[in-house]
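quick one: zinc ion bound model?
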Amino acid sequence: MGGQYQIYLNAKVYNATPRGNLKLNKLYVGDYVDVSLNEYGTGYVIKKVLERFNTLVRPPLSNVDQIVLVIAPIPKPDFVLIDKLIINAKMLNIDVVIVVNKSDVENLYSKVCSEYSLAVSHILSTSAQKNEGIEDLKNLLKNKFSCFVGQSAVGKSTLLNAINPTINAETGSLSKKIERGKNTTRHSEIYVFDDILIADTPGFSLYDLDIDCNDIKYYYPEFQKYTCKYLNCNHFNENESECEVIKNVNLGLINLDRYLRYKEIYKQVKEKWQNLYK
Ligand SMILES: Nc1nc2c(ncn2[C@@H]2O[C@H](COP(=O)(O)OP(=O)(O)O)[C@@H](O)[C@H]2O)c(=O)[nH]1
Ligand SMILES: [Mg+2]
Ligand SMILES: [Zn+2]
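yep, here:
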């Protein structure tokens, strides 16, 4: 942040300076690095970046163990965006946890469970305001680097403060944020406490899909449960009456809303590529 670097070593945070030959734009928040004490013993020198097991762009982050997607009844979730984020996370081999916050306002949790229980690794219900579900969330965060994403005002900062009040993350209403957003630049910062590491980000590039439309189906575990007899079937040709996925949608064994959004996402991705090569 502002040309300053910090490292996390043996459960403590220290200042660090990249060695001259380390290109600064090559350092990502989340990188594992080789360090040594500087010559005065006042801090550390970053000598080398170790190989990353994943990389997110916009905002740049590396070595993310799990994405914690926070949603809430207000502001209303965009489920197409949520599905895209899950596809992206699967492409990057990152687990997704959905936190359904503001349980005191409305029960959105059951709907989310019926749609996503096969698609993500955990679904939690929380009320950051009433301090409910926070212990379960903490347990999922232990010994991991988690990336919190979600629309503005779903309660990410309030959750962070409930997890650990010393974080003191700034919270506020949506209108205040838009006001403030005009003259602040966002950087990625990792919150560290005990054995929990969290980055709080808007998660921009996770909402874009860079994928061949014919591959999207492979990122739907609920489709993968069934073997369709048609080779390379994208599971929406009505004439293919024997399509195993369509059959199970009709039987109610595959969630209809997820399936309809899959078709929508397929169409969007296909159109995007067609426009590119027109
Ligand atoms: N009713 C209710 N309001 C919440 C809850 N969590 C956060 N909020 C409120 O939602 C607004 C946005 O919260 P904030 O943490 O700043 O959202 P962020 O933009 O995702 O970081 C604030 O006014 C919070 O007080 C909750 O569990 N229940
Ligand atoms: Mg916030
Ligand atoms: Zn099929």
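The longest strand covers residues 12-18.
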